[in-house]
Design brief:
The structure holds two protein chains of two kinds. By secondary structure, chain A is an all-alpha fold. Chain A has six helices and no strands. Chain B folds into two domains: about 80 residues, Rna Polymerase Sigma Factor, Chain: A, CATH 1.10.1740; about 100 residues, Winged helix-like DNA-binding domain superfamily/Winged helix DNA-binding domain (Arc Repressor Mutant, subunit A), CATH 1.10.10. The chains are: A mainly alpha, B mainly alpha. Chains A and B meet through helix 1, helix 3, helix 4 and helix 6 of A and helix 2, helix 3, helix 6 and helix 9 of B.
Chain lengths: ~160, ~190
């Protein structure tokens, strides 16, 4: 790193404490080093003190006139609660671990009588035809209600966007 | 109390679009200054700056609110200004130095050292910045006036932050050379 790079790092405050001490010593003892430092510091101070350029008085008004012709922006970002994602992940990880542990616990590792683990769940449901029909009707009814609620929300959102224009 | 950029953006996205004027007022000076570094004249710079704010408005919904709005806006400014330069078929190299120096020397010939004050120092500084390439001028402006870190400037200019650091050092050295030439090695006088 050359002298000027070192001094810029010192002026910008991005050098380490050791480098900072070294540079301060050089500034105090080395005349040519101090001369370069003073020149660079002068540029730095001047740049810091410079004013920004001012656009015309009508700038904001001109921008807003153009902006008013545009479609109002809406947030495209879907806010997802991370806790929901973590809960779903935890559910699946736990499920897989449980199955793995169950499988390992029920596996015989001797080669002679090796058997794949099996799950014996007896499902003995006695549902007559009329109950099945009522069940299906309830299922479709709930679906229709959920569909209508969703449609209502969707239309309300659309109305809000339109009124915002 | 002044609302934050994010609060203003949220209001705009919720339908209160007139609040966008506050965001424009807050950032217009810097966007205009950055635009002038490319355009080299006020009329074109104003056109670029207006275009930037309209583009930013259109894309406001895509702005990730965990970043600084200014960094995002300056990225738009930089790309808009670059497109403007390409359209105008201007070279990305620094403007013809010889011609500029002749013009500046003419200015200096009328220059009375005793009457030198900070205001004229800033005029000469701006002239020296104008002599730099648009990239050098932008980096210096973003660093000193845009309150942007090296990492943020790297995002704006789509470069590595190490590259930006080197470019910033070189740009400042070139600026120093220009000022020294203009002011006959009396750089220190600038800050008196």
């Amino acid at each position: 790193m050359n002298v000027e790079d070192q001094i810029w790092d010192y002026i910008d405050g991005v050098c380490s404490d050791t480098q900072k001490q070294e540079i301060e010593t050089k500034i105090a003892n080395d005349i040519s080093f101090r001369k370069v430092y003073e020149e660079l510091k002068a540029i730095h101070t001047l740049m810091d003190a410079t004013d920004l350029d001012e656009p015309s008085m009508s700038f904001t008004r001109n921008v807003m006139e153009q902006v008013n012709l545009e479609i109002a922006p809406i947030s495209l970002k879907t806010k997802v609660d991370n806790r929901i994602i973590y809960s779903i992940a935890a559910f699946f990880i736990l499920s897989m671990l449980s199955i793995l542990i169950y499988a390992l616990a029920n596996t015989s590792f001797s080669t002679s009588d090796f058997k794949m683990p099996s799950i014996n769940v007896k499902v003995d449901l006695d549902i007559d035809a009329s109950t099945k029909r009522i069940g299906l009707q309830i299922f479709f009814f709930v679906d229709i209600i959920l569909g209508l609620v969703y449609l209502d929300k969707f239309l309300r959102k659309k109305m809000q966007v339109k009124s915002g224009l | 109390m002044q609302q934050t950029d994010i609060a203003l953006i949220t209001e705009v996205l919720n339908g209160n679009t007139s609040v966008y004027a506050d965001l424009v007022k807050r950032h217009q000076r810097f966007v205009f200054t950055l635009a002038i570094r490319f355009a080299k004249n006020r009329e074109d710079a104003e056109e670029i700056a207006q275009d930037c704010f309209v583009k930013a408005y259109r894309a406001l919904g895509t702005f990730k609110q965990n970043a600084k709005f200014s960094t995002w806006l300056y990225t738009i400014t930089y790309t808009t200004a670059m497109t403007f330069l390409r359209k105008k078929r201007l070279s990305m190299q620094s403007i013809d130095e010889e011609e500029s120096l002749v013009q500046l020397q003419n200015h200096i010939s009328d220059y009375d050292a005793d009457a030198f004050d900070k205001k004229s120092a800033h005029i000469y500084l701006n002239q020296a910045i104008d002599m730099l390439s648009p990239d050098d001028a932008s980096i210096i402006t973003l660093f000193y006036k845009g309150e942007q870190s090296l990492e943020e400037i790297a995002l704006v200019l789509n470069m590595e932050s190490k590259t930006i650091k080197v470019k910033l050092h070189r740009a400042r050295l070139r600026l120093k050379e220009k000022i020294q030439y203009l002011l006959k090695d009396e750089v220190k006088d600038l800050i008196r």
